[in-house]
Amino acid sequence: MKMTFRWYGENDDSITLSQIRQIPGVSGVVGALFDIPVGEVWEKEAIKKLYNTVKASGLELEVIESVNVHEDIKLGLPSRERYIENYKQTIRNLSEFGVKVICYNFMPVFDWLRSDLAYPLPDGSNALCYIDEKVVNVDPIDLVKSTADNSNGFSLPGWEPERLAELENLFAQYREMNHEQLFANLKYFLEQIIPVCEECDVKMAIHPDDPPWDIYGLPRIVTNKENLDRLIHLVDSPYNGLTLCSGSLGANPDNNIPELIRYFGGMGRIHFAHVRNIKFFGKKQFHESAHLSSDGSLDLYEIMKAYHDIGFDGYIRPDHGRMIWGEQARPGYGLYDRALGIAYLNGLWEALTKNSK
Ligand code: DNO
Predict the structure, then answer these.
(1) For the chain, first and last CA: distance in Å?
(2) Does residue 233 carry a catalytic annotation?
(3) Buried-most residue among 32, 187, 208, 274 (CB within 10 A)?
(4) Calpha distance 137→130 (Å, rounded)
């Protein structure tokens, strides 16, 4: 496996590349160009700048998270053609700088959703938290506002202002959309981009919906084994793969994460692993926890064992961490707890490797 760390760039991250470089075992960063409006082409000049900055620090830039998909593609509007052409060009441009995997999602309107960004934990730290009744009983527009207001001054991934400014309008456009139509729109998108990925040797890795169920009447389709299986066969190419996020899929206890890893990883369709833990405290209620198995509800040993058993050699990153030691950072994306997560994941991996000899 290749251990990576998500980085938001020089202007929008509290963490520096030299700090990342000093986390043991990290070979690369997972980056993106956050200032390009969703749907526009990522031009080579801008990619080159990011690439040079990352390489100069001694790290790789082989994974992008995310090239976001324009809402018109998800809605299946005629204007999607232009955005799909742009997406193809972005894939070509990224491939010229050695990018191997693009993480993206196909969630209508929102990306991930939480009710609290700084839920206090007994040890004095805080973490992202999801309490369903707090989410469903709030007007989505108020939730967006409170999320933006409580992000320690950082823009949150997937909550780009330009996408959310037109929230009401977007909701209206999705009113008639069902799961089947969303699947059809995903298929249409994949049929056009996967041939370009094959040509350029760039793998697509769809991120699961977080949490993995419908929200505010918006359909969500990247939620469970059956749907993941369906989507990788929409276009049956190894370039049409998954970001297996343990915390997102794990929010539904019916999803058995080690089983999903063995199944989809065994088919060579997991290109990017997001590994983190969550702790349930009720139905559709969880807070994020330290990566350690005993701190949450998921068994990280079993998760890493599944990756080890399938001979996983793709990219992996620790996912959200708690905010600890007084750090002020983008919620979920501080340095300390994610670095602790990496040390732990590396420890599990070393033990699994030595024990299997
Ligand atoms: C949350 C992230 C997601 C993810 C996107 C991928 O912290 O895991 O925002 O990056 O869904 O497109």
Answers:
(1) 17
(2) no
(3) 208
(4) 13
Q: What is the pLDDT of residues 303-348, one digit of tens each?
A: 999 999 999 999 999 999 999 999 999 999 999 999 999 999 999 9
Q: What phi and psi values does residue 31 have, to the nearest 5 degrees?
A: -125, 180
Residue 274, CA distances (Å) to 34, 119, 317, 345 in order: 20, 21, 5, 11
Q: Sheet harboring 126-131: ordered strands across?
A: 116-120, 126-131, 285-288, 278-282
* Dmax (CA) of the chain: 58
Q: pLDDT (tens digit, 9 = 90+) per residue, 255-274?
A: 999 999 999 999 999 999 99
- Which residue in 281, 287, 285, 288 sits closest to 320, CA to CA? 288
Q: How far is the CA of 210 from the centre of ligand 1 (A)?
A: 8
Continuous segment of H or E residues that includes residue 88: helix 80-95
Task: Determine contact, residues 292/277, Cβ cutoff 8 Å.
Answer: yes
pTM (2 decimals)?
0.96
346 lines ligand 1 (CB under 6 A): no
70 assigned to active site? no
- SS3 state of residue 97: coil
Q: What's the DSSP call for residue 294?
A: G
Q: How far apart are CA 223 and CA 235, in angstroms?
A: 18
Q: Is the CB of 103 under 6 A from ligand 1?
A: yes
